[in-house]
Each structure stands twice: as C-alpha cells, then as structure tokens.
Amino acid sequence: MAILGIDYGRKRIGLAICGALKIATPLETLERENTEKDFKKLKEIIEEHEIEKIVVGCPKNMDNSMGEMAKEAQSFSDILKNRFSLPTVLWDERLTSAQAERSMIEAGLSRNKRKKSSDSVAAALMLQSYSDRNG
Question: Which is nearest to 54 in space by CA: 66, 42, 64, 38?
Fold first, then answer.
C-alpha cells in the first residue's frame, strides 16, 4: 500500500511517499499556485503512485492544542478526503521542520538546496513516524 505524506503550508506543500517497504522518502515540494492547480497536481501524484492513503501533518502546539496552522491542516485534510475519496489521517508533526533542517545542515546542503527540500524532507520524517507507529 502506497501512502502519501503531506507537510501542508500556505506557500509550499511538502510531499513524501511510503510504499511496501515502509520507508518514507521525500517526493517533491509543490509551490502553492492556486487551489485548482494544487489539487490537479496532487491528483496526478495520487494516480501515478497508486496512493491508497494520505497522511497530513498536523503542527500541534507544544501543549497539544490546535493552533491556526493545525486547524488549516485539518481543513485541508478534510478537503483531500472528500475530493479524492481516500482514507486521510492527521498526524502530529511537531518539530519535523526543525529536524529536517538540522539533518540537511549536517549533510552539508547549501541554504538554497535546503530551502527547496525542507518541506518534502519534513513530510518524509512525519510519514516515517506514522509508518513506524502503524506499521
């Protein structure tokens, strides 16, 4: 079963995929254009990779409350579920962006490459966490 991981953002959407081997890998980062173009691209990815489930990162606050971005991610998750008729799960993604940034710095990536990759790497970290817990 292929699972699509989404790191939702207002400017970019980080994407990762996890297949039968249960190893999440960064896929790409979508620069947000407009809602219809964003969903068209997501549909292409879902069809190309035969996605059966979507996991959307939910950036909860450290006290476990739902802030503005978490509520937006939840709303986005609901739209995906209705639009693509796939099981959609919200998954806690606290600190994945910071963890992604650290790992790319340690790997020696330039600031420009980090900017282009950070959202998809964060999506992969979040998706791997989901996969590890729900194997």
Answer: 42
